[in-house]
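Tokens in:
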């Protein structure tokens, strides 16, 4: 059984942005999603909504990326940024957030996001991100999760050590 590729749509309206995630939010789209978030932040959006009604699951890498994003918003220089709002997160996603102790980084809501701007699909480098980018993003994401909640250290210690070692090998071969 083949999976449909994930899709990300971005809707903007003034200082507001709504990101609709469809399909699996996992390591394969984390690099592209992180690049998208960085571009949006450069445009000084202050209100972020993630609409997740069609997002079946998030893996820990993707979750670490959105937590890192929420953390950067919190420490932003403008002082105007708000916590990202997660609309319609399913039980699997909320359960993962809770089990990792990072649910407090987000506001949760049901229903339709407030942003009604036009939505545009965002190109994702699914399957195209190189191993170095995937490993670096995954390493940063898991280190973020460990920094946010020390209870996550034993969960991700071996993984982060492997990723750091593998990244060192990859970069040594350049």
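Residues out:
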């Amino acid at each position: 059984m083949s999976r449909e590729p994930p899709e990300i749509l971005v809707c903007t309206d003034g200082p507001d942005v709504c990101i609709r995630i469809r399909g699996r939010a996992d390591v394969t789209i984390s690099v592209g999603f992180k690049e998208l978030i960085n571009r949006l932040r450069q445009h000084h959006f202050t209100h972020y909504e993630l609409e997740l009604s069609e997002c079946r699951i998030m893996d820990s890498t993707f979750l670490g990326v959105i937590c890192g994003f929420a953390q950067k918003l919190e420490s932003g220089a403008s002082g105007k940024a708000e916590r990202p709002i997660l609309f319609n997160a399913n039980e699997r996603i909320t359960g993962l957030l809770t089990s990792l102790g990072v649910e407090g980084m987000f506001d949760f809501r049901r229903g339709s996001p407030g942003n009604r701007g036009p939505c545009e699909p965002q190109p994702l480098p699914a399957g195209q991100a190189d191993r170095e980018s995937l490993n670096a993003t995954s390493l940063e994401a898991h280190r973020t999760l460990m920094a946010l909640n020390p209870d996550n250290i034993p969960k991700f210690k071996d993984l982060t050590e492997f990723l750091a070692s593998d990244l060192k090998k990859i970069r040594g071969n350049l």
